[in-house]
Predict the 3D structure of the following.
Amino acid sequence: MKILRRYISFLLLIALSGTSCIKEVKVPLRFVPGRLVVEGIISTDPGPHSIRLSMSGDIGSGLQVPEENLVKDAQVLIRDDQGKVINLTHTGSGIYQTDSSVLGEVGRTYTADITLTDGKKYVSKPEKIAPIVPIDSFQIRFLPDFSPTYPSYLRTYIYTSDPPDQENYYKWEFYSYTRRRTLGVGCGFGCVMLEYCLQRISDNELQILADGPINGNDIVNQGIGNSYIFSYGSHFFDIAQASITREAYQYLQLYKEQSSRTGSVLDPLPASIRGNIVSADNPEEFALGFFSARSIIHKKVIVIPHGITQYLLDISADAFFLKKSIPCYDAYPNTLYYDPPPADQVPPPPAWNNADTVRVYWNYP
Amino acid sequence: MFNTSHLLGFYTSVSPDAVQDATLYKGGMPSEYGGRISSLLNMRIKSGFSEKIKFATGISPVSVRLMANGPIIKDKLVFTAGVRVAYPNFILNQFPGTFGNSRAFFYDGIGKLEYQFNAKNRIGITGYTSYDKFKFDTETEYEWRTDLVSLNYSSDLSEKLSLKVNANYSRYGSHINSLLTKYESKLVSTIEQRQAKATFQYKVNNKQRWEAGVDYIHYTISPGTRNPSSDSSNILPFSVEKEQGRELAAFINAEFDFTDKISLQAGLRYTNYNYLGEKKVYSYEEGGPLTRETITDSTVYGKNDNIQQYGGFEPRITLKIGITETFSFKASYNRGQQFLQLITNTTAISPVDFWKLSDSHLKSQYGDQFAAGLFKNFNAGKYEVSLEGYYKKAKNLLQYKDGANLLLNPYIETALLNSQSKGYGVEFSLIKNTGVVTGQLNYTYSRTKVQVLTAFANEKVNDGNYYPADTDRPHNFSITSRFRLGKGWSFNANFVYVSGRPATYPDGTYSYNGTIITDYSKRNMDRLPANHRLDIGLSYVTKRSPDQKRYSMWNISVYNVYGYDNAYSIYFIRYHDRLQSYQLSVIDSAIPSITWNYYF
């Protein structure tokens, strides 16, 4: 009986080791010739406005577009619906820029026109700049995080009244300057300088909204971006609300879904994201990417900490303070350099000289 | 029945013990059957009309089954009942470590009760229930349920005229349970069918038979309801509105045996379909693709209001010509209509599907099939050879749009596109019926292609050309064989080879908005590796004479002898700058099994 039981257990073990498994495999991948990728925006902001051209690569391409895939010798124009032609010149790395005096106008329709060196021509579908929708108000909240990997942050929430008589599509953008710190550089007995600097941070959250479900009502509590707290000091926010076209909204929505695929069953189906740029000879042949014309309104805000002392904050943000004796502006990317002022007085960036100030209560519970 | 197998095709959905016979209609569909453009597998459950109650039972380490059929009141009230349970679950939980996570479980039960009023009238009721649970990975668990009940009444009204009445109810539900912490939820989609059918059969003489009747089917579909399944879950409840539809058909069919060599079956079916409320139906801007942003209005229809109507004639004709005693030729033409379609996402790690009725945006489907074949018997039926070919076209099939969100989408018409398909194939079959060695060899070459039809360039799939459909399998080869070794021993070996399913692989990478995007510019232009496996089995039966009442049968078998890991799906995940491809296999090694069956 014992032998029988052992034998059956052995059989079971073999039988049940054949269960489902997931393993990494190499699959034969088709080669498809590179396609033109266009990323361009013209807006009501002061120029220059840019269009970036590159070619798509095969599956193995890394995070940076390889040099050979950047398109540096194309002829790029933007035309408006009144016959005006705006020339763009290549300024490096596949980026073509207009003159800084060029400004997009609300109500005008713009089309991008690209001719490659092999004669192939691509045009965008016309994009009309929608009227500006102002930001009613905004709120900034302090969101603590206790982990050493993620800093606490300030998050901005927008409140806007959606105009009822229009079809509106929104895109919000946000970046901020936040104070960073190092041990600084010695300047004599008991003197330290270049300890602090301002770093430009942008999470690049894609926040878009169509007014269909809410038309005419208010947009409330729309979170649009985070500014991270690495040390004690004011933050300098740029809050922007853009009005985009329906086609731009649909493109960005598809882009958002496709870039969030995780391989689970609830993913959207894989797709080529079709934009608004087609071959001039064959309007059914699409280039990748999108050319967008939009109106945009910015609000610059200085956020002053309130309800917490430098001492306390420096303890909790200790993990984000680079303990090396180098100038702050060398330690971190995208920083603003200042002539050595007194260490704890970093002046606001020039664009914030007339900005509103807001006191936000930062407190750890 | 809406699900046709257990454990993703590993087991049949109905226990073979309970089946009397099964007929597969590939072409030459009689006009009494409608509602689908595909083939029909008609299974008849064993009857209890016998001398005494018979039992059959089988036990293996992972499943157990029990079947009984026979008379309650001899020749008057008879029954058939069977239950089957597979519990790799329970056994796996007894083992620590890797086997601790349960992976699969199913059961099914079937019962039939028949009452013979008198020589001319009989009534029967059949019930079937089945349940499957399967876990693909640690985060997702699937459950499938079917419940069905069917009532059959037959009456010989006169020597030549008889009446058959059938009423049935069938419900199928598929559940996806998400087990991810903080996101525990249950997503359910169901389809219910209620049918009533009456058929009159009139036998004019031995050479002529007529049939006519009516067929009514009502569908209720719940495309998706999601609810949180724990108190700490962040998931909000959401559901997509149910939909209802109804088919009403009338049919007539005649069979003529002109000579003993030539026979003809001709039939006509007319089916009328209505898409019914209650439902909120959206209207969209003209002259552009249907998108969420181009909704112009919505109309709310009341219960059972007619929202959309479709209908048409379905002619059916089959001709059989006996060229010699053993050699015959058959040709057929069918038109079928279909008013609902299964929407499948086959590009995820595992399939998700739900049914969709034809409505004011999505037209009803119809298809035409031509088939012809040659059949020959050799050596008084010892060998049968056949060669058949078919050509099939279908219109108004649904395909998904690029980037579509199929699940829980209240605007599902914005995710679907109209398409047409064409298919053709040649099937060769060789059967050996008698002798020490018996078996079958089948090879089919077939293609099924689909073409998306849209006026809008940004909706086109594969540039508007025909491309392989999800069901396209160019090669399908199988051998089944049985060796009678004498003294109750027999050995069987089966081999199958099927081309892999078409797949959509990424074919490009580009940068936009500071991130890397994976491009999938073509659909279904790649293919999963072919599926093949060898199963062998040895069986020993203790039955020594035809009237021996009690006997047992031992089976030792090995499924997937050479342990090939057949790909179930291939999917891609991007990790920063690398795109990784993964294969999911359901079975990746040989599975031995031993079963003891007892008949009494």
